[in-house]
Amino acid sequence: MQEQDLIGVRQDNLILPAHAAATATEVIPVWKAPYPCRLRKVRVTSGVVITGTATNYTNLNVQTVTAAGVATEKANKDYASGVNEAAHVTTDLYAPAGGQVLAVNDSVAIEIEKVGSGLALPSVLITIEFDRALTS
Questions:
Q1: HEC letters along 4-67
Q2: For the chain, first and last CA: distance in Å?
Q3: Most buried residue among 17, 21, 24, 50 by CB atoms closer than 10 A?
Q4: Using CA of residue 65, residue 71, residue 72, residue 75, what is the dihedral sign?
Q5: What pLDDT is stored for residue 2 in this prediction?
Q6: pLDDT digits (tens, 9 = 90+) for 81-126
Q7: CA-CA distance, 126 to 38, in Å (whole number)?
Q8: How many other CB atoms are found less than 10 A from the CB of residue 29?
Q9: What is the DSSP letter of 3?
């Protein structure tokens, strides 16, 4: 039996490295589809509190990227004033209704976008939830 023959939602976890406030905007590839699948969720868990600020902040943008390299922003979380992340609480960054179908070798990237002088972000856990894409 091959992995793609298994039924049900799978999870892959990875650590997104800390991001200093002074660091320029960067895009970090975090996951590649091993077979045709449905992306169910991209989630974030921080080990410490993240407190958004009014002028200088950082955004986490979820992108899907085709095997040909075409990136599309799907969702974002802007750590602006009033937008915080509690320690050890998992929140959804992207959870499309019904999932998003990805082809083999399509990928997910996280853009860490600096706004103003930026906001330092700690290392966070990124969880990718997916299942195999059903074809008829």
A1: HHCCCCEEEEEEECCECCCCCCEEEEEEECCCCEEEEEEEEEECCCEECECCCEEEEEEEEECC
A2: 20
A3: 50
A4: positive
A5: 60
A6: 999 999 999 999 999 999 999 999 999 999 999 999 999 999 999 9
A7: 17
A8: 12
A9: G
pLDDT at 79 over 80: yes
The structural domain count of the chain equals 1
Task: Give me the pLDDT at residue 133, please.
Answer: 80
Tell me the whole-structure pTM to 2 decimals.
0.90
In a domain, 17, yes or no: no
Residue 126: name the closest of 14, 28, 38 by CA. Answer: 14
Burial 71-84 (b: 16+ CB within 10 A, else e): eeebeebebbeeee
Q: Is residue 56 part of a domain?
A: yes
**Cα gap 102→109, rounded to integer Å:** 13
Range of the domain at 74: 31-121
Determine the pLDDT at residue 6. 64
C-alpha closest to that of 42 among 135, 131, 129, 134:
129
